[in-house]
Every structure is written in structure tokens, then in C-alpha cells.
Design goal:
CATH superfamily of the largest domain: EAL domain
CATH topology of the largest domain: TIM Barrel
Shape: flat
Number of domains: 6
Helix content: 40-55%
Structural class: alpha+beta
Strand order of the largest sheet: 23-24-26-27-28-29-30-31
Radius of gyration: 65 Å
Length: 1067
């Protein structure tokens, strides 16, 4: 519809005429096609009937005689002769069917749409063949519509050509008529457009019909009048346009955002600064109100409307501060300056507004305030005291620390001269130093001052360090100073203490080794200067370690403190007493004339030391051994004198307690002999005389070899194989033990690599001396050694250290073990239980393995205390989740008891002696565990059954004492011997055993056996007491048989108990 309204006159006339002509011809063409279609269908029916009349008689004749070939030729001739015959078919019974379907032989010329439009069907007729009343089949004929369609299509094309020519002729004729009449209207339209475009001199020529000439004349008159009027207006507005242009440029050039509104709140104009501020163009704001421009900020718009209303009610000026949504959604802080303006009649016509952006100024103010607050918080929180002054040296501020040190509050100190608040003295001269500080503060550079004393308001003094600096503004103008100072009283006291502690022993307050070296030089110089003797005495307490172990380290330290006091009081002022460490002291006795005088001094000192010490009400007695080396103008250094005194002290200890001994040359010869032995051991290492033997470690419960311990042997060319206890003690405190230890590590790792090549991967343990692992580079050296054997996993290496050595510096050892764990190496505490470790020490030492000392293992079959100690170590290992292994496992019975106690790993002569590496693999292949262990492979007793094991060995001990009565070794009382309820086993049987195992049949069988043992035992003791040893000896086999029966019955009870425990746990 819109297109029709927009169409011109030419289009409105031409289009309907053409559509009308086109419609008439389309209807005509349709009627032509329908007629041709109807005519074709009628012709088809006539043709089919005609062919039927011709073919039926002929077919009947041939069908009667059954000449199918003749029928086929007849049908084929019909198809050839008739072009429009599509197919013909004769059928008579199934076996005589003859069909000829040749299809259409004429090509279809009409397109598919035309065929669908005509929709001429292919007519078909079927006629029975009858002759003499007999049925000879049926004849079917079908006509193809292709020839007729082609004929109609050609006629349609001819008609289309005629129709197209007709349309073109009509179009040209109408176009000619319309164009000749519409040319004047088109000229008028063009003239109107040019006039509207500003061509006011345009005119239209008068032509065409009477109507068109009248329109041209009217237009020309109107155009002339308007042209004259516009020229007059242009001349009158020229001056105003120039003024307006100037005003617009002026507004655009102003950096302050400006806008204009009328009294309805509609914006009349803005300048460029306003557009930049808000992000709107002039076209977007002019003609709109604030609600239109900021619809999503109703609060912002309402505030402006309210302020505008107040201004219009009270014309004049208005100022207010507000936060606005500037360009890109950024909030800006601005000040609005508004004023009303009037029209020529003097009425208020609107308002003019100017906007000043104060965002940066407010941010600067906020930053300055925040900086000031941070400075105040910083000054209040820092540990230093801070005072600021003005240019005249008057106090402006103090932070909290300054208030504490000076005793002045901020309110009391403000405005006072600096000297009144900050009263300081020179530490050396005790003279006021404030003037000096003030002059430095008002100078051009900062000054650091020390050695000052601050006098507080309350008179309290403290040592301070102070720095003073001028305060200047960015232009460099001085307007005050700042003083930063701190209390260093504690620091100076601590420095003094450190200086003192560096040269004194912290416990006894005596000179230490550092100060002793200085005193030594002074004493030697004095002896040389006065030609006198100098006695260098090394004192070591006798029996101090037992006291320390029994009473504790705290009391031991108090003993050393009192000893130091006694030694100091026993010496003269020119003498020196120093503590080297532990219970070793050095005494330097100067100004002596002969040996006899030195001896008297030694007796006096020994007597003083030997006096009883009363500590916590406990009288404690200790003595001392003193070695004395005398300096008598020989060329000898202090270290040699101390070494001589140490050798002499050793001789004094060898001679007994509370003695002194003078150094002589024989002692030096002995030391040289020891050095010779050290050199021989070093040569043995260098010449390859050291060997590693390996002692197996086995899991008795599984019957498997789980590892080896590498043990050192010396293949001496003259003395044969020497065990480690015969030569290692000589080198344990020397650096040679480090070389030997590293050789052992290399050799063990080399052997492990060889075994790994044949598929043997045992954990090998290596003993490391304390002097070795205490070296600072131990860890780095170990890492280097492991790197030299890359085919060996570090997890297969286990380092063994003595428990007692580990307790020497538990923190260092703990850190060392942790670092070795990081490398993959594990740690074992050797001889565990022989040291003085506590549960706390065990908790702090992250060792992987605890090795029960062999002395406990060897004695546990006979000594109840050793048995309890072994059980305690096993329990500790379980609690702290450590692996436990027993050393010194000598017999299968030892192994069985260890398994019962919960220790499955063991090593000792009961398994194998240490052997060369070449024999290890063969031994492991033929190793078989003790048969007795197999009985306990699946049985484990818990801690509640430990008294059962103790009772078993109490009974064995009772039998041994009875048999030993022949040699007077029976220590049993009469009741323990005679009454089977009074011995230790009987007490267990009637008490703990009856309570826990009385319901088991294996337990009840023990009563009769135990009573029988007590029947024969007293007889043996009585016969031995009467001297009838042969008769007593004759009874011993029977006692031993009963003991074995008791052992077997107890073993049955233990298995029953273990089975019961296992069943209880599974439930």
C-alpha cells in the first residue's frame, strides 16, 4: 500500500492498463488450452474404438487356430503404423500370453509445467476376443498423449508470440500518450525541489495543456515573491549570525563546562567542555531534560530538579557540591555554579550553569589526609621514638615511644623548647648536648649521634642513639626538624654481656679458652721477665659423671659453680683459673720459685676440692686429678704445655683419685708410641690391609635373610686378623677415623653393587663413629660417596651410631638424621639401652631402627632384669613405630623368646659369625632357620602375657639354683624351696596366671608338674648340704626331665593363649 501511495501519476495510469490487458489475454489463453485438451480426449476415444473394431476380428481368426506368431506380427504392425499408439497387449491364459509394449517413440517437446497444466491422461481400452461364443483372450490398447501435447504446445507458442507483440504495442502507445501530458508536471516537480534546495531563481516554462500552463504560472509568481523575501531576511540576519558564531566559539573555547536551560528544565545548549565531562553530544542533550538524559539515575535527576526549582523560585545565584556520573560511568566530584537569566521583557527565561571539577583536588586532599594518618599510625607503631619541631625549635609532636622515654605527653610538650623536653647528656662528659643537636637539626644534612643519655621528666636515665634531620617542603624551604631516637640501654648491656661471654665461661663465670690464651701469653712473658717458674695445671674431677648422672645436670652444674669459687679462692691474685669445658679446668700459677712450692699449691688445691659439697641437703664428695707442666725458660708454646699437662693428668688418674702428677719425658714417649700406632693403622688403610666382614640379619618369623652388618677387620701381615676393638679405640677421636669410615662406606657400597648384579638387594648397615658424623661436611661427603655408586639405591644403606654418642648433641644428630632421610639413607641406634636416653630423647631422634644391646639379649634367659629391659625396648619401638633388632642372639632359645616378646629381627653367633663377602651369598642360599622358630612363626603374645614369659624363666632359674646347690650357689629361702606356692613361679600361678589363664586346660596341667618339681628339688639341696653329692647328682636327671615337661606344658599354654588372642581380635 505504501508503494502505491509513493508511486507517480505515470505509474498509477500505466500499471492498471497493462494489468487489465494482461488479465484478458491470460483468460483467453486458458480457454484455448482447455478447448484443445477436450478435443484431444474426444479424438483419443474415437481412435481407440476404431482400432478395436479393426483388430478384434483379425485377432479372433488367429486366436482360433492358435497362431501366436501371427498375432504378434499383427500387433507389431499396428504399433508401427499408428504413431499415437503407446502399447497393445493380447492375453489368453497364462501360457499363451503375448505382450508388446514399445513405449512412446515421439519425444516430448512441452516443458514439465505445461504437461502438469494440461494433465491429459493416456486413454486405455480393453476388449474381449469372442468368436462363436468362445473366449479367446482380451485385447488392451493404450494411446500416448505425447503427439497431442507437442501439437498443443506449438499452438501455445504461436499464440504467446502474438500476445507479446500486442502487449509491447499497447505499452508503447500508452507510454507515448502519458509522457507527452506529464512532462509539464515533471518540470514543475523538479523546479520545486531546486527551490527547496535553495535555488530561489528557478522558474517553470508554460507548456502543455491549459491546466499545466496554469500551475507553471502560479509557481513562478510564488517563487519570485519568496526570493525577494528571503534576500531581505538574509541581509537582516547576517550581523546576528556573526555574533552568534562568535558566542558559540567563545563557549566552545572555555575549559569550564557550561549549559543553558529554560524554565521547564529543557537544555538549550552546552559547550564542548560539558560534552567531554558527561560524554554526551550536543544533539543528545539539547531539547531534553535531565530526566531524559539520566533516566537510570532518578536520584541524581531529582536533586537537580529540586535545586533548579529553588533557583527559579528565588532568582539569583546558586552553588552546591555533588558527585556526578561522568563519561564512561566514572564518578566525579564537582561544584555547580548556577544563575538565572531574563528575556527582553525582564522575566526569568532560564538558567546558566557552570561546572568546576574538583575530583583531583579532593583526591589530593584525601591522599594527603591518608598520608598524614599513615604517618601518625607509623610513628605510633614503630619501635623508635620520634619528635618533630618547628623552625624555632619548639616541639610539635611526639609519638608514643617518645612520650614513654621522655615522660612528656603530647599536650604538655607542644610549644615547649626542645631542650625542655629532650634533655640529653653526653655519656662521657655528662654535659648537656641539646644545643649541639638543635644546630645539627637546623642545618642542611641529617646527623647521627651516639653515646648520649636521655634524662626523663621523672629523672630516669637511659642510653640512646639519635638521628636528627631537617624537614623541608618541596621547594626546599626549611620549616622544622625531626629527631628519631631509640633506647639502647639493653643493647649496650647485651653487647657488654656478649663481649664478656666471649671470653668467659657462661656457667662458672671463669675465663674460657679464649681469655686463657691471652692470660697464657701474659704469664709466659712475666715468667721470662722475672726468671721465675710458671705452673700449667690441668684439673679434671674424679667421679663427676656418676654424680651428674645420678643427681641430674642441674645439680652437677651447681657443683661446678661452687668448685670454680673454691679454685678462685685457693689461688692468688696473679694466678688464673679457667674452664675448658665439662669438668676440666686450667690453672696458671705464676711467680713460683721451685717445684716444692708448686707441690704445696697442688696439695692445697686438692684439699680444697675434696671438701664435701652440700647441695640441696645432699653431702656430695668429689676429688680431682691434676696434671702439671712447668715452664722454665724453655722454648715451648702454650699448646705444648697444655698437652703435657693433659698427659700428666692422665697419669695422675691412673695412679688413683685426688692426686697430682708432674709431666716427664716418659709420658711424652708414651704419646709418641700412640702416634706410632696411629701411623701404622693409617698405613694399613693405605696398603689395603683392612677388610669388611658381613654378619647376617634375619627375620626369624619368616625365616629370611633381610640384611647384613658390615664389620671391620684388620688383616695384619704378622698378627693375623685383628678385631675392631683392638685398634679402633686408638683412632676414634682422630681424623683417621673419618678416613676409615669413608673407606668402609665406599667398600660396602661397592659390594652392594656387585650383589645387585646377581639380584641380591640386602640392606647393609655401616657403623659411623661420633667424630666422623660430627664433622660439618659429613652430609656433603656422604652425598658425594653415594653419587660415586649410582647403581646402589641409598635406601639400602643404613648408618649405625651409638645411642650414647647420639645423646651428646641430640639436636645436631636429629637434624643429621633428617637430612640423611632426604637422601634416602636410614639410621639405626646401636647398643640401645646402654645410654641414658629418655622417652623424650627417643621421640626427638627420628632413627629408623633400634638395636637392642647384646648384653641384655645374652642375659635375658637367666636375668629377669635383662628380660624386662629387652621387653621395654621392644615396647618402646612399637610405641614410636621404630623397627627393632636384637644383637647377640646366641641360641635358638634366645630367638624363640625374642619372637614371643615381639622382636622378629636378630643377628648373632646363633645365626652366623661375621664372614668375608665372598662367603655371604653361598651361606644365604643354604641358610635354614631353627626348627624351634617355626613353631612360633604364626604366634605372637601381647604385653598382657609378659608375666607368663617371666614365670617360665623364673622356673628355669629356680631349677638352676637347685642344681647349683652343690657349689653353694642356691640362694632360695626355705619356703621358696619347699612350698611350691611360695616360689616366684608359684606366686605367679596362684595370682596373675590363675586370674588370666585359669579357664584354659593347658594351665590346670601345670599344678601337678610344679608340685612334683618341688618334691624332688629340696631332696637335691638337702643331699648337697649333707655332702652326699653323688646321691644328689643321681636325682638331677629326673629334675631336668620334669623341667622339660614344664617347658613343654608352658609352651602349650602360650600357644593356646596366642590362639585365643587371635580369635578375639578377629571377632
Amino acid at each position: 500500500m505504501q508503494l502505491w501511495r509513493n508511486a507517480g501519476l505515470y505509474t498509477r495510469l500505466l500499471l492498471p492498463i497493462l494489468l487489465l490487458i494482461l488479465s484478458v489475454n491470460v483468460v483467453q489463453g486458458y480457454l484455448i488450452l482447455e478447448y484443445a485438451k477436450s478435443d484431444a480426449q474426444v479424438n483419443y476415444q474415437e481412435e481407440l474404438h476404431e482400432m478395436q473394431r479393426d483388430l478384434v476380428p483379425a485377432l479372433a481368426e488367429q486366436a482360433v487356430i492358435g497362431d501366436v506368431g501371427a498375432i504378434s506380427r499383427l500387433l507389431q504392425s499396428q504399433v508401427r503404423e499408428r504413431a499415437d499408439l503407446g502399447w497393445v497387449q493380447w492375453q489368453h491364459q497364462l501360457n499363451l500370453l503375448q505382450v508388446i509394449d514399445l513405449g512412446s517413440r515421439t519425444a516430448l517437446l512441452a516443458p514439465a509445467w505445461f504437461v502438469r497444466l494440461l494433465a491429459i491422461p493416456a486413454p486405455e481400452i480393453a476388449a474381449p476376443i469372442m468368436l462363436g461364443g468362445e473366449y479367446y483372450g482380451v485385447l488392451r490398447l493404450r494411446i500416448t498423449p505425447v503427439p497431442v501435447m507437442n501439437k498443443i504446445w506449438r499452438r501455445f507458442l504461436d499464440w504467446g508470440k502474438i500476445f507479446s507483440g500486442f502487449i509491447v504495442a499497447v505499452f508503447l502507445l500508452i507510454n507515448l500518450i502519458l509522457r507527452s501530458n506529464l512532462a509539464a508536471i515533471r518540470q514543475l516537480s523538479v523546479a520545486v525541489k531546486r527551490f527547496r534546495a535553495g535555488n530561489y531563481s528557478v522558474r517553470v516554462p508554460a507548456s502543455g495543456s491549459h491546466e499545466t500552463r496554469g500551475m507553471a504560472s502560479a509557481f513562478n509568481g510564488m517563487a519570485a515573491e519568496l526570493e525577494a523575501l528571503l534576500q531581505s531576511l538574509e541581509e537582516s540576519n547576517s550581523t546576528q549570525s556573526e555574533q552568534l558564531h562568535f558566542n558559540q566559539q567563545l563557549l566552545a573555547a572555555l575549559p569550564i563546562p557550561l549549559y543553558f536551560k529554560d524554565t521547564d528544565g529543557v537544555c538549550l545548549g552546552v559547550n564542548t567542555a560539558w560534552e567531554n565531562l558527561y560524554g554526551f553530544s550536543t544533539d543528545e542533550i539539547v531539547g531534553h531534560s535531565v530526566q531524559d538524559v539520566f533516566p537510570i539515575l532518578p536520584g541524581f535527576a531529582a536533586h537537580h530538579l529540586k535545586m533548579d526549582a529553588e533557583l527559579f523560585q528565588h532568582p539569583g545565584r546558586q552553588t552546591y557540591e555533588i558527585t556526578i556520573p561522568a563519561a564512561n560511568g566514572i564518578l566525579r566530584d564537582v561544584i555547580y555554579y548556577k544563575a538565572t537569566y531574563t528575556n527582553v521583557e525582564g522575566s526569568v527565561a532560564g538558567l546558566i550553569g557552570a561546572i568546576v571539577d574538583i575530583t583531583e583536588r579532593k583526591q589530593a586532599q584525601a591522599a594527603l589526609q591518608a598520608e598524614k594518618e599513615r604517618a601518625l599510625v607509623t610513628l605510633a607503631s614503630i619501635g623508635d621514638a620520634v619528635i618533630t619541631t618547628d623552625l624555632d625549635g619548639r616541639v610539635e609532636s611526639l609519638n608514643g615511644v617518645a612520650q614513654q622515654l621522655t615522660g612528656w605527653s603530647v599536650s604538655a610538650a607542644q610549644g615547649l623548647p626542645l631542650e625542655a623536653v629532650f634533655n640529653i647528656l653526653n655519656e662521657d662528659t655528662r654535659q648537656p648536648a641539646t644545643n649541639f643537636i638543635s644546630s645539627a637539626a637546623l642545618g642542611n644534612a641529617s646527623t647521627v649521634l651516639a653515646n648520649l643519655i636521655l634524662m626523663g621528666r621523672d629523672g630516669k636515665e637511659c642510653s640512646i642513639e639519635c638521628s636528627v634531620a631537617p624537614i623541608r617542603n618541596p621547594e626546599g624551604t626549611l620549616f622544622g626538624c625531626v629527631l628519631v631516637f631509640r633506647d639502647v640501654s639493653e643493647k649496650r648491656h647485651l653487647l657488654s654481656q656478649i663481649t664478656w661471654q666471649a671470653s668467659h665461661d657462661a656457667l662458672t663465670k671463669l675465663p674460657n679458652r679464649v681469655l686463657l690464651g691471652d692470660r697464657f701469653k701474659q704469664a709466659i712473658a712475666s715468667a721470662q721477665r722475672h726468671q721465675q717458674l710458671l705452673a700449667v695445671c690441668l684439673l679434671d674431677l674424679d667421679g663427676f659423671k656418676p654424680v651428674n648422672d645420678y643427681y641430674g645436670h642441674e645439680l652437677g652444674d651447681r657443683l661446678l659453680i661452687e668448685l670454680a669459687g673454691r679454685l678462685s679462692s685457693a689461688l692468688r691474685g696473679e694466678d688464673t683459673v679457667a674452664r675448658l669445658g665439662g669438668d676440666e679446668f686450667v690453672l696458671l700459677l705464676s711467680g713460683l720459685n721451685d717445684i716444692h712450692e708448686i707441690g704445696l699449691a697442688m696439695q692445697r688445691i686438692l684439699a680444697k676440692v675434696a671438701e664435701p659439697y652440700l647441695l640441696d641437703g645432699q653431702p656430695i664428695q668429689v676429688s680431682a686429678s691434676i696434671g702439671v707442666a712447668v715452664y722454665s725458660q724453655d722454648e715451648i708454646d702454650p699448646d705444648t704445655l697444655l698437652r703435657h699437662a693433659d698427659q700428666a693428668m692422665y697419669q695422675a688418674k691412673q695412679a688413683g683419685r685426688s692426686r697430682y702428677h708432674f709431666f716427664d719425658t716418659n709420658q711424652d714417649h708414651q704419646a709418641q708410641s700412640q702416634q706410632h700406632q696411629l701411623n701404622r693403622i693409617r698405613r694399613a688403610l693405605q696398603q689395603g690391609e683392612l677388610r669388611l666382614y658381613y654378619q647376617p640379619k634375619v627375620d626369624m618369623r619368616r625365616g629370611q635373610v633381610v640384611g647384613m652388618e658390615a664389620l671391620l677387620r684388620w688383616h695384619h701381615p704378622e698378627r693375623g686378623v685383628i678385631g675392631p676393638l683392638d685398634f679402633l679405640p686408638l683412632v676414634e677421636q682422630t681424623d683417621l677415623i673419618v678416613d676409615i669410615g669413608e673407606w668402609v662406606l665406599h667398600e660396602a657400597l661397592r659390594q652392594m653393587a656387585q650383589w645387585a648384579e646377581i639380584g641380591v638387594n640386602w640392606v647393609i648397615s655401616v657403623n659411623i663413629a661420633a667424630h666422623h658424623y660430627e664433622r660439618p661436611d659429613f652430609l656433603a661427603r656422604l652425598e658425594h660417596i653415594l653419587a660415586d655408586h649410582p647403581t646402589v639405591s641409598p635406601s639400602l644403606l643404613e648408618l649405625e651410631i651409638l645411642e650414647s654418642a647420639a645423646l651428646g648433641d641430640i639436636i645436631y644428630v636429629r637434624n643429621l638424621i633428617t637430612a640423611c632421610h632426604a637422601l634416602g639413607v636410614t639410621f639405626a641406634l646401636d647398643d640401645f639401652g646402654t645410654g641414658y636416653s629418655s622417652l623424650t630423647y627417643l621421640k626427638r631422634l627420628p632413627a629408623d631402627v633400634l638395636k637392642i644391646d647384646q648384653s641384655f639379649v645374652l642375659g635375658m634367659l637367666d636375668d629377669q632384669a635383662d628380660l624386662a629391659l629387652v621387653k621395654a625396648v621392644i615396647s618402646l619401638a612399637a610405641v614410636f613405630n621404630r623397627t627393632v633388632i636384637a644383637e647377640g642372639m646366641e641360641t635358638a632359645e634366645h630367638g624363640m623368646l625374642l619372637m614371643q616378646l615381639g622382636c622378629d629381627l636378630a643377628q648373632g653367633y646363633g645365626i652366623a659369625r661375621p664372614m668375608p663377602a665372598s662367603d655371604v651369598v653361598a651361606w644365604s642360599q643354604q641358610y635354614r632357620p631353627a626348627p624351634l622358630w617355626a613353631e612360633w612363626a604364626d604366634i605372637t603374645l601381647d604385653d598382657n602375657d609378659f608375666p607368663l614369659l617371666v614365670a617360665q624363666y623364673d622356673h628355669q632359674k629356680w631349677v638352676k639354683q637347685v642344681i647349683g646347690s652343690s657349689e653353694g650357689q642356691c640362694m632360695l629361702s626355705f619356703s621358696e624351696l619347699k612350698d611350691h606356692h611360695s616360689c616366684r613361679f608359684g606366686l605367679w600361678y596362684d595370682g596373675h596366671g590363675s586370674t588370666h589363664y585359669g579357664h584354659l586346660p593347658e594351665f590346670s596341667g601345670l599344678e601337678a608338674l610344679h608340685a612334683s618339681v618341688h618334691d624332688i628339688g629340696p631332696k637335691i639341696v638337702r643331699l648337697n648340704s649333707a655332702g652326699q653329692f653323688a646321691a644328689a647328682k643321681a636325682l638331677e636327671p629326673g629334675l631336668l626331665v620334669m623341667q622339660e615337661e614344664m617347658r613343654l606344658q608352658l609352651a602349650s599354654l602360650q600357644r593356646a593363649v596366642a590362639k585365643l588372642r587371635l580369635e578375639t581380635q578377629s571377632e
